[in-house]
């Protein structure tokens, strides 16, 4: 099935985004805008493509082109051009494109784009309505502003790794990063939220603005309940493995054949769990009637629950928990998660076709909008596949001028086979 055709205009149809970002945080934001209908133009430099195109294996092969699977997670619904902003003619081309753009997203080190006349102050003079979003590791100000930021470093610096991993008194204890680049991903989402807020402000005022999104700020804000626990109690949170710092029982337990998750978010759910397990002694223990008491006696309670749960087959226990109204679930690998009948019914897995017909499966936009659903119009583009088409259509450049720009190194165009496919399309 090809899911690449849009049937309904998206919420952001009619908006144009210049995407000067690379790797993940910025591209995640611009892909989200693209899923919601915006026209996103991905800008790469002729001599240096987005790093993630090479972050493999695995690679996706199509025709004479190769791109890493990593690149595909954040670059659908975009057109791709290759322009060298370090070349005067290349920078001039981007400034011309800015004149008709609504949003620009970039993630270069602080001050880099100012050297080429592509900073917010310069571009605001060209297009006062421009919303310019800068995504960096540490923001536009402060003593670390000039540093490069990587998700792994941010997870450590923000305190996230200090609360992730096994308890200090358990084998294998020590700080652990989350298995996904969550600081990048959440920063991309906050960038998107901020852009949408700025669009609403522009609707009322007619003015654009500059948005300063930092990975460290984002990840610190996402410390959420753990940060509040510290701010209220002055006690530094510690690693608890899979346990919850505030709610008990809320962790993994071993059945006779597999691990399962128990997540009792209320006193009544705890009571139901105890009755289901035949542990009226725990349900009636006055120390355990409320969550604060269960937190104080966490170790003792969890040992008792573990004994009772260990005699069950995982599938039987999860069925019994569902019938009793006790939240619980399996610990799936990715293959199992995608094969889950509920996930299949939600339709999150999409198939897109590249220019050469190569099918690519992607995970789609997770929210379902009744009037303006997300769309999957374009597979992640081949490097520079749209340079010629966009510069012809948007700036009116003739073929002779395109050839001059290629010869000077200001732009790059896709290989002839791809360029012919674009032209024919």
Automatic annotation (TrEMBL):
Q: Which domain of life is it from?
A: Bacteria
Q: Which Pfam families match?
A: CoA_transf_3
Q: Which UniProt keywords apply?
A: Transferase
By its UniProt entry, which SUPFAM superfamilies does this protein fall under? Answer: CoA-transferase family III (CaiB/BaiF)
Name the Gene Ontology molecular function terms of this record: CoA-transferase activity
The UniProt entry, under InterPro entries, shows:
CoA-transferase_III_domain, CoA-Trfase_fam_III, CoA-Trfase_III_dom3_sf, CoA-Trfase_III_dom_1_sf
Q: Which PANTHER family match?
A: SUCCINATE--HYDROXYMETHYLGLUTARATE COA-TRANSFERASE
- Name of the protein in its database record: CoA transferase
* Protein's organism: Pseudomonas putida (Arthrobacter siderocapsulatus)
